[in-house]
Design goal:
Layout (H helix, E strand, L loop, with lengths): L8 H12 L10 H16 L7 E11 L2 E11 L5 E7 L13 H11 L2 E5 L11 H15 L1 H4 L1 E11 L1 H12 L10 E4 L22 H11 L24 E8 L3 H13 L4 E10 L10 H18 L7
């Protein structure tokens, strides 16, 4: 692969090393192999994780349509104060990834933002295709609100966040949140997929730098049937209205086929009167939010996320 000279040097080296090692792309693997590759890559690319006040795993029980199910969560807490909370949804194309692959980013976010982070292990495709993932994420967010006292969080300062497929799910949760519930304070969308109906031929960098058209097709085909791709629970860009949604922090990067979708969603949010901050990282590729051991841009990303979150919580009024 001929690399674009505008890529940051450390990212170009990562891609060169991957090419030299002849690592298969996601689209060339079966589901088990893809999940194993992501687990291995996430540990290598993030590096050692930092210490935190407490990190705890548990299963929560959520109910829908008269049926209870269990959803795993991991809670990160920097201290014992009553704190704001971020409900976080991991990336991985709705097929790979879990609370372990995103452990480093969640620890960093909890420390930098001084908040509790609740990472949700939603059901994955193809074992659980759409709408399992958004249903789990909506239900888990409702559970966090309902158990604020138990969790030691300030329910008036709750935000949602995610990367890639997780950002898609965060956007969906923000859109689907009941109007009679306390408001979600903000949404953090890191290189989100917002429109699964888009013509793949129109995407930039179709051959991809870790994520290209072949990988997107692989993820989408495992997750969703063609007939459902216009549903706003799949493609939040296609919602009839974006008015009244929480303030948004959208992060995209230059060498990412999803970059235009994030930018377009930012513009549509802004046109609907939603407060939006759009950060675009030059020279970066999809997945860099988990590359703390590779590039300093990762630390800068999470510092910007933390700053936006603390700003969004600054004028919160406690829920009565």
């Amino acid at each position: 692969m001929i690399l674009d000279p505008r890529l940051r040097p450390e990212i170009a080296k990562l891609l060169d090393d991957a090419a030299a090692a002849a690592l298969p792309g996601i689209a060339d693997l079966d589901v088990a192999g893809a999940r194993r590759q992501m687990r291995e890559a996430s540990a290598l690319w993030w590096g050692p994780v930092g210490n935190l006040g407490s990190v705890a795993d548990r299963m929560i029980v959520v109910g829908e349509l008269g049926v209870d199910r269990k959803v795993p969560i991991r809670t990160y807490r920097p201290n014992d104060d009553v704190l704001p909370v971020v409900v976080f949804f991991h990336g991985g194309g709705w097929v790979v990834g879990d609370v372990d692959t995103h452990d480093g980013p969640c620890r960093a976010l909890a420390e930098l933002a001084g908040c509790v982070v609740v990472s949700v292990g939603y059901r994955l495709a193809p074992e659980h295709r759409f709408p399992a993932a958004p249903r789990d994420c909506i239900a888990a967010t409702s559970w966090v609100f309902a158990h604020a006292d138990e969790l030691g969080i300030d329910a008036s300062r709750l935000s949602v966040a995610g990367d890639s497929a997780g950002a898609n799910l965060a956007a969906v949760v923000a859109q689907q949140w009941p109007v009679d519930e306390p408001a979600i304070r903000s949404q953090t969308l890191i290189y989100p997929a917002t429109d699964l109906t888009i013509d793949h031929d129109a995407l930039p960098y179709p051959d991809g730098y870790l994520l290209g058209v072949a990988e997107l097709v692989w993820y989408y085909d495992h997750y969703i049937d063609d007939a459902d791709r216009h549903d706003p629970l799949v493609s939040p860009m296609l919602a009839a209205s974006l008015a009244g949604l929480p303030p948004a922090h959208v992060i995209t990067c230059e060498f990412d086929p999803l970059d235009p979708q994030g930018a377009d969603y930012s513009r549509r949010l802004s046109a609907a009167g939603v407060e939006v901050v759009h950060d675009r990282f030059s020279g970066m590729i999809h997945g860099f939010a988990g590359m703390n051991a590779i590039t300093q841009a990762t630390g800068e990303l999470w510092r910007r996320v933390a700053d936006h979150l603390t700003h969004s919580w600054s004028d919160a009024v406690a829920v009565s």
